[in-house]
Each structure stands twice: as structure tokens, then as C-alpha cells.
Amino acid sequence: MQQESEAYFRSLFEQAAIGMAQVDFKGQWLLVNPAFCRLVDYPQAELMQRSYFDLVHPEDLAMNQVYQKSLLAGTIPNCTIEERYLGKNQNTVWVLTTTAIVRDLHDEPQYLIKTFQDISDRKLSENALKRQLNRALLLQRITDAIRSQLDSRQIFETTVTQVGQAFGVSRCILFSYIKKPTRRLPVVAEYAEPKYMPVTGMIVPIKKAMPWMQVMDREQAVAVANVYANPLFQDLEPLFQEIELKSLLMIRTSYQDKPNGLLVLHQCDRFRQWSSHDIR
């Protein structure tokens, strides 16, 4: 009878549509089903050589271990948490993980049994909604600032500050576009995090400013993840090194369908892969 029960459990375990695993308290896999292997894109044999904790996203590891301690202490019978796992290619997978502790007849803890449900699509939808709400709030804050201020410079300063903080960038710079007598882009407002030097007042020769001028001739934003890998900015590398620039995002501003300025976001603390949501 016991053998039949074990065979039945093993069959359910192997054929389950959601990920399932047995894990010891040090993070070593005891059993892993095919659904979980597909979830994290690991062959089963390779996955068994890794620790469970190797797959938990570093930012979620502390929370995971707190719950495990509570399970071992018997303060909670089980737990369900949303956390991230790292796939074989270091891609992030959002997972709803339910964990329970298995005990023997003497109530001694034996191992953890876990189920894993992929919630990545749901998280993407939630994050998209959050971005829409954040942008709506950003536009509302800027609109409120414009309504409460008559000084155009204060309006510009408020705008770059709100945009810079909303996008989490190191600098946000607003340029005015002047066509005559010669094309130029003077800075009209700048937001910069305290640890980064402001660029207002810096003079860039018009020949070296051509990448910015080219943006004025197009409607689409220009996103550059690594300014040192783009030939367009080769002549500007010394300046970029001086201001610690790594990535930038540029988009022109318009009034009555005519370009009148340029908004530039600087990322200085890391090379940033700008998302489609950032660019839109």
C-alpha cells in the first residue's frame, strides 16, 4: 500500500503543470519536477548540482530565509510569497512560491516541499499599470506647478526635477533650440543628483554638438545604453568622462508641431538599458 501511495505521489509530482520540488534546509534539491526545470530553463541534472538559494533573486533572498526560519520554528504552518528567481541565462522570473515543512511521526522536520507558479505575465501587467499611474501623477505634478507659478524658469526647473526623479536618472537637462543666426542648444534648466556635477554653463563646440542637433530633426527619442560604444559620440568621450556619463536618452520638445527644445536624461551610476516604456 505504501509503495502504491509513493508511486501515485511520484506520478503526480512528475506530471504536475506547476513547478514542484523537495528541498533540504541547506538549499539542496532532493526532488525537482520537469515543470520547475522548464520554469527556470535548467536541465534537471544541471539544476540538481546547484543550490536552491543560487536561484533566488539576491533582493528576495533575505525575505525567503526569514520565512524558512519561521517554518522551522513552527510559528507558521506554511507560507506563500511572491519572489523572483534567476533562470539559467540570468533572466528574472516572477514566481508565486508556496512552502510547507514535512515532519516525521515524531514531529521532527525532514525537508521543505515547494510549489512554484509562474506569475511573470501578471507582474508585467501590474508594472505597466504602475508606470502609467506614475506618469499620470508626474504630469499632474508638473501641471500643478505650472498653474501655481508664473515664472517660466521656475516652471522649467520644476519640470526637470520631477522628470529626473520619476525616471531615477542622474541628470535631467532641458535645452532651448535656437535656429538663428546659428543653430544652438543653450541649457535652460537642469536637475542633477547632489553627487554629480551640473553641466549648466559648459560650452560644447557646435561641431561636437551635432548628435544633439540630429535629434532635433526627428520625432523619435534616441536611447543610448553605452555612450562610449556609439561612434556618433566619439569626439565627446573626454567630456562624457568628465561628467561621468554612461547612458543617455534624448527627445526633442515641440510647440505647434515645431521643435523648440531638447530633453536629455543622463545615467551616470550604471550603463542603463532603456526600456520601451522609458522611451515612450
Distance between the termini: 62 Å
Amount of helix = 25-40%
Structural class determined from secondary elements: alpha+beta
How large is the count of helical segments? 10
Query: What sequence of helices (H) and strands (E) makes up the elements?
Result: HEEHHHHEEEHHEEHEHEEH
Largest sheet: 5 strands, antiparallel
Strand content: 25-35%
Give the overall pLDDT as a whole number: 82
The gross shape turns out to be elongated
Task: Kindly state the number of beta strands.
Answer: 10
Radius of gyration (CA) equals 27 Å
Low-confidence stretches: none
Query: Which strand order does the major sheet show?
Result: 2-1-5-4-3
Q: What does this 3D model show about the protein?
A:
Strands 2-1-5-4-3 form a five-stranded antiparallel β-sheet, with helices on both faces. The longest helix has 29 residues, at 120-148. Strand 3 and strand 4 (92-103) form a beta hairpin. The chain starts with a helix and ends with a helix. 38% of the residues lie in helices and 26% in strands. 19% of the residues are buried. The chain has helices at residues 2-15, 34-40, 44-48, 52-55, 58-73, 120-148, 152-167, 210-215, 237-242, 276-279, and strands at residues 19-23, 29-32, 78-86, 92-103, 109-118, 171-176, 187-192, 222-224, 247-255, 258-267. It is an alpha+beta fold and 280 residues long. The mean pLDDT is 82. The protein is built from ten helices and ten strands.
Describe this protein with a few key phrases:
single chain, 280 residues, alpha+beta, five-stranded antiparallel beta sheet, 10 helices
